[in-house]
Amino acid sequence: MLTQIKTTLSRSQSTILQDAAGALSLLVMLMVALHLPGVF
What we know:
Elements: H1 2-11, H2 13-39
């Protein structure tokens, strides 16, 4: 099982990085949207 996980991670490393960047950008947008009402 550990071998399968390592193989999967090595094959899809660029995709995982793109997914992580997308998730981070969604979190940033959420935090900005939640703080907007306090600004105005």
